[in-house]
Amino acid sequence: MKPVFVTAYTAVTACGPGQKMLLDALLMQHSFLKQTRLISTNFITFTGEIESPLPVIAGALSSYGSRNARIALAALDCENSAFRHAVAAANARYGAERVGIIIGTSTSGIYETELAYQARLATGALPEDFDFKHQHAWVATAEFLKKELSLGGPCYAISTACSSSGKAVAAGQRWIEAGICDAVLVGGVDSICHLTLHGFNSLELTSETPCTPLDRDRNGISLGEGAGLILLERDRISDKHAVFVGYGESSDAYHMTAPHPDGAGSAQAMRSALTEAGLQPDAIDYINLHATGTRLNDQSEMRAMASVFESKTACSGTKGMTGHTLGAAGAIEAVITLLALEHGFAPGTCGIRHVDDEFSSHLLTETVQLPGIRYVMNNNFGFGGNNVSLIFARGTAYA
Length: 399
Known about the structure:
By secondary structure, the chain is an alpha/beta fold. The protein has 11 helices and 17 strands. About 60% of the residues are buried.
């Protein structure tokens, strides 16, 4: 594949708004998982909810006013609106019609729809300000961002469960290589809602304590919410910017929710990413694992890792800090790998106490400094075996 350049990125998670708060959490290995607060449940579960106030969507775009879109807006405007300014610069460089947008999501505005139907049960009518098309629809947040940023290029959403926003990054590269766009805003946004909390609980996958991915005694996931946004461009703007050099996608077609026991599809995605990047496995300095904290998912991924990489390759899971942000996980965790590249470190696995004896990979239990880091991989594997692996390179590797 033709490499493209990462000229800006941002994230909003339970760790807080912006790169710095996420970076601090990664370096200090601080978990932000707490008992669920936004939604009342009849079971105990921990979540990674955004506690900082979210901006209000007003004026001409007020019909898009969902929690999902407000999280996206918070990502645009944190840290002095640095990401918004980067998109405006791309608009000026290439022309707005040459800048597209692809957003991955699992929940979109389901939370608002749930509240609307609760109101209907109580009053007999849906709230007047409920707008199904502009709040609930999977493409709604992508459309909101397109209008908010005055983008003129193509726009769509991807919803393939936990791989959604990782696939958005891959699709953005294809648009640029195909000549459809010169820059693409890619990423993911997801918000807590009743459906996912109760759905995962019905599958007996939620943990009654903060999740401990890859731990011998792991017992389930902690759901989270957030946004990760990345700007991909055709042209290099600065040598300091990371480069997106490879991706791999696969489909297990094994089971509706469970992964292939030996991680066949996961391994295929990782190998495909390495092939696209023209790299051997030993070139990868750090891998951010999907690592949800469920017994089967972690086991499947680690078997796939053992089949592709040597045991010395550093890897870790970061959902013990943010929770599992579902459709936003690919983009948020891509931002984590970009932070690792930029600042020369590899994050540890927050919450891990005892590494599962079955795992042979070099699992990091603490954050380590890697000043010579050059290539990083990010894995995201969703329900139904929707798999994606992304590889980013330090900018100087392509100087």
